[in-house]
Amino acid sequence: MIKQPTIKLLLAATLAFGGALTALPSSFVHAESIADTKINDASEAIERAHSLNLIPQEARVTAKQDGDKWDVIFQKDEKDEGGSPFHTGQVIMYAKDGRVAKYAVSQRSSFRGEPGDDPDDESKMKYSIDEVKQIAMDFMKQQDWKLEDSWVFNPYPLAENTTKFQSKRFHQVRFDRSHHGVRDAWDGASVAVDRRTGQINSYYADWEERVYTPDKASEATPISQNEAGKRFYEAIEPFLLWQGIKDPEQPQLVYALHQQYIMAMDGTFPKEYQWENPPFEEKIKPGYSSWTAKKRLLSMYDLNLEYIDGKLAYRLRLKPEITYFMDGWHPTIDAHSGKWLNFLNEPIKTTFPPAGDWLVHAAPVNKIGYDAAIVWNNELLWMDNEPFIQKSHTLVPFRDLLEKLGAKIKWDSEARKVTASKDGVTIELLVDSDTAYINGKAIKLEEPARLKKGRTYIPARIVLETFGTKVGWERDSRFILVTTEESLPPLSSAELKRYRFQAQLNWENKGV
């Protein structure tokens, strides 16, 4: 393994002083201005590569001229059983000015596991994922390669078929090139950190010169991100396909989207960015709305301004939390039930991601269909069953609400009675009764608990206030505002807009 004492000290200091490791900087290793230098011979080529910090210490180096460039090759002495060196690299520079045309470096792992040891045993891991991310970022900073661009942390996962054989012990942290603060995923680097020791296990980096159009995003005049999102939304339509990878004899009809979409910075779709949905000629009417499917599927995507093959463009790509098995095999939506499915048609059990701000702006809620939704401590509360309004009073599913509150609950099916207890306070409600009992004292209800479609609903305000929470009402959004914490700021207009979109989409998905 690569020894990293400085990194371990930095991490230890961060933890000792309570430093947060979850908020990782977006970019680092800022590019430096390196004076041009003509290269006349091999020794000058090697010296130039050393001055740019592109050759590690103790490496053996050779150089030869190839046309108008110098090709510098380096490697360290340690080799594997087959005689191949673990640490190798290449620097290609122009002879006329010493500029780097290409750089590649790789340090393969020399680790050999012990018989009987389980590298996926979480109980043996001493470093969290966030901690190893910080270690990897510190390692990249310490390399101090004098290249024209910086590096930016890449949160987007690789396809599962490329990572399923990687052990949990050695976590891969990936980076993209960053040109004047804009991501360019064409070049990349990766650092593997041992979660047991905090040491670097292996790494690689690939960098190649590129002409950027425009060179600086600040000099460009792209359409706004909101406008780009609107144009993507208008242009993209989900397509139907029969998905039967697991069982070709019994495929399921699903809605799907392409893995990514790209738009030129002026809002157009030139030929190289255009896409085509696969044909589907069968006359089948899905049971699930394509309109809702479109918004839910697009909720899986981030919208970023990036460099794509040197050109500044807008890109829709799957969010970091969306896992997929291989390219093209990403999540879909059942065209009849609306279930979120993986490539094997198995329901995905994780929570569906909330829509990005770009989508909220592109598909605003013009008319609210839901009766009410709950915002709990400034976060929209997901509920399996929708609240409803009865005679101007909001009733909510009792189990969803009381479990969120942390109360102990009991349901007496014969008496049709709900009992909830917390911190010495007990409330009893009988279905269709206008009387509640708080610690045995009768309280008159303006609206009783009700049964609806086999579910018990209870009046929200009296139950919540009984247990000491603050309850408010946001009329325009139909939000019950529940506060159990002190000094929470009021919701911003952007937050209200985002939650309205999500509450409406949740309601549409449930087919209320």
The residue-averaged pLDDT reads: 90
Beginning-to-end CA distance, first to last residue: 57 Å
What does the largest sheet look like? 9 strands, antiparallel
Helical run tally: 10
Structural class: alpha+beta
Give the helix level as a range of percent: 10-25%
Number of strands: 29
Q: Proportion of β residues?
A: 25-35%
Poorly predicted parts: 3-25
Net shape = elongated
Radius of gyration: 29 Å
| Lateral strand order in the biggest sheet | 1-6-7-8-9-5-4-3-2
Structural topology:
Layout: H1 5-16, E1 27-28, H2 42-51, E2 60-66, E3 69-75, E4 87-94, E5 100-107, H3 129-143, E6 150-154, H4 160-163, E7 170-179, E8 182-194, E9 200-208, H5 225-235, E10 239-243, E11 252-256, E12 260-264, H6 290-298, E13 301-308, E14 311-318, E15 332-334, E16 340-341, H7 357-362, E17 373-376, E18 379-380, E19 388-390, E20 393-397, H8 398-405, E21 408-412, E22 417-422, E23 425-430, E24 435-438, E25 441-444, E26 450-452, E27 455-459, H9 460-466, E28 470-474, E29 479-483, H10 493-510
Parallel strand pairs: 17-29
Antiparallel strand pairs: 1-6, 2-3, 3-4, 4-5, 5-9, 6-7, 7-8, 8-9, 10-11, 11-15, 12-14, 13-14, 15-16, 17-18, 19-20, 20-27, 21-22, 22-23, 23-24, 24-25, 26-27, 28-29
Helix pairs in contact: 1-3
